[in-house]
């Protein structure tokens, strides 16, 4: 399974007929709950990831975590998360200059509208703002082409995460 922006920072696009969406950091409790609701819909319900492994210590308000949220006129459309500093160390080989993009989820109704790409770019912006030089992620193998189009390169062997095949990927910023 594998996060920044604001309504006026260029991270916006179309969502559905006549409506737009905006991507922003999830800074208040309501935004964070919206992020968790999207993740539950996509990972727990749709992909059958056990709820007890979907949520972790990095979901609490934390200085080393940035959550981003895409919102349309009818509510949340997607979310993603950036881990950096000590929080990312276990996913990036201990390299403090690399952040970890994860928990990227887009609701079924919003897929194909550019929401996922906007969330990735917002996470990259958050990483740059924190002085990171690259972003790693663990992509579900069916999503490799999506991340490759955004400049990520796969490395290492395929591995299971929550029973789903994944590959590690990285993009220099």
Overall description:
There is one protein chain. By secondary structure, the protein is an alpha+beta fold. 25% of the residues lie in helices and 35% in strands. Strands 1-2-3-4-5-6-8-7 form an eight-stranded mixed β-sheet, sandwiched between helices. 40% of the residues are buried. Mean pLDDT is 88; it is low at 1-11 and 14-18.
Quick tags:
alpha+beta, globular, 173 residues, eight-stranded mixed beta sheet
What is the topology?
Layout: E1 12-14, E2 20-25, H1 29-46, H2 51-54, E3 65-72, E4 75-83, E5 98-106, H3 115-129, E6 134-140, H4 144-149, E7 153-161, E8 164-172
Parallel strand pairs: 5-6
Antiparallel strand pairs: 1-2, 2-3, 3-4, 4-5, 6-8, 7-8
Parts with pLDDT < 50 across at least 5 consecutive residues: 1-11, 14-18
Distance between the termini: 21 Å
Could you tell me the radius of gyration in angstroms? 15 Å
Order of SSEs: EEHHEEEHEHEE
Q: What global shape is seen?
A: globular
Strand order of the largest sheet: 1-2-3-4-5-6-8-7
Mean pLDDT value: 88
Number of strands: 8
Structural class by sheet pairing and helices: alpha+beta
- Helical percentage: 10-25%
Count of helical regions:
4
**Major sheet size, sense and barrel closure:** 8 strands, mixed
Beta content? 25-35%
Short summary:
The protein is α+β, with helices and mostly antiparallel strands and 173 residues long. It has four helices and eight strands, in the order E-E-H-H-E-E-E-H-E-H-E-E.
